[in-house]
Automatic annotation (TrEMBL):
<dbReference type="Pfam" id="PF00903">
    <property type="entry name" value="Glyoxalase"/>
</dbReference>
<dbReference type="InterPro" id="IPR018146">
    <property type="entry name" value="Glyoxalase_1_CS"/>
</dbReference>
<dbReference type="InterPro" id="IPR037523">
    <property type="entry name" value="VOC_core"/>
</dbReference>
<dbReference type="InterPro" id="IPR004360">
    <property type="entry name" value="Glyas_Fos-R_dOase_dom"/>
</dbReference>
<dbReference type="Pfam" id="PF22677">
    <property type="entry name" value="Ble-like_N"/>
</dbReference>
<dbReference type="GO" id="GO:0004462">
    <property type="term" value="F:lactoylglutathione lyase activity"/>
</dbReference>
<protein>
    <submittedName>
        <fullName>Glyoxalase</fullName>
    </submittedName>
</protein>
<dbReference type="InterPro" id="IPR029068">
    <property type="entry name" value="Glyas_Bleomycin-R_OHBP_Dase"/>
</dbReference>
<keyword id="KW-0479">Metal-binding</keyword>
<feature type="domain" description="VOC">
    <location>
        <begin position="18"/>
        <end position="133"/>
    </location>
</feature>
<feature type="domain" description="VOC">
    <location>
        <begin position="177"/>
        <end position="224"/>
    </location>
</feature>
<dbReference type="InterPro" id="IPR053863">
    <property type="entry name" value="Glyoxy/Ble-like_N"/>
</dbReference>
<dbReference type="GO" id="GO:0046872">
    <property type="term" value="F:metal ion binding"/>
</dbReference>
Amino acid sequence: MPVQVQTKQEFVIHPAAALGYVHLTTADLDRQITFYQSVLGFKLHWKKDATAGLGAGRDDLLRLTELRGAGRVRGTTGLYHFAVLVPTRWELAHLLRRVVDTHAHIQGMVNHYTHLAIYIPDAEGNGIELAWDFPREQWPEAAELVRLGNGPLDPEELLGELERDLSPWTGANPDTRIGHVHLHVADLDAAGRFYQDVLGFQATFLYSHRAERLEGCGGTGAPA
């Protein structure tokens, strides 16, 4: 459950700082490009040698570099998932439709009460969260989030957005962006100190259940 954290620190990252692109190593560049184009509606911005940039027509959201023989190693620190944040509920509904139509695997669908989330793996098992934020004024207070936990996402209700607006979907909306990157860590306290003391991030919430899950998946003291 989330617990609000307030700390004082000497260096704080600029409030306008935002995430850029996610960069992944892949064993099969063309296969991954096809996945992100067919399922997420990404555009291929450029491709040179063993690297490609994809996104929604503006800045790259994803870069892929091919390393033959590369593969995910279970039980280690590293990427848990990255969130692809779409600007409207209608866009999220279309992504769900694309996931279903392309027979992509759905790992979970959750109402986090701050946002709706659909969890899928890409063609090589990297975790992706497809997300849409509720308007900020609708977000519950921290104490209410603790009480609510996570709720179900009704796929039929979400897909109803497509019946209310019959406009054609032409791929990823240009306002799509990377919402967050979620990491497996071996030591939550040490990781927190690094991101606060070195990068200037501020702690906002500590999700105790998520920390336990990280220890269960990555393992306390898991290899890097």
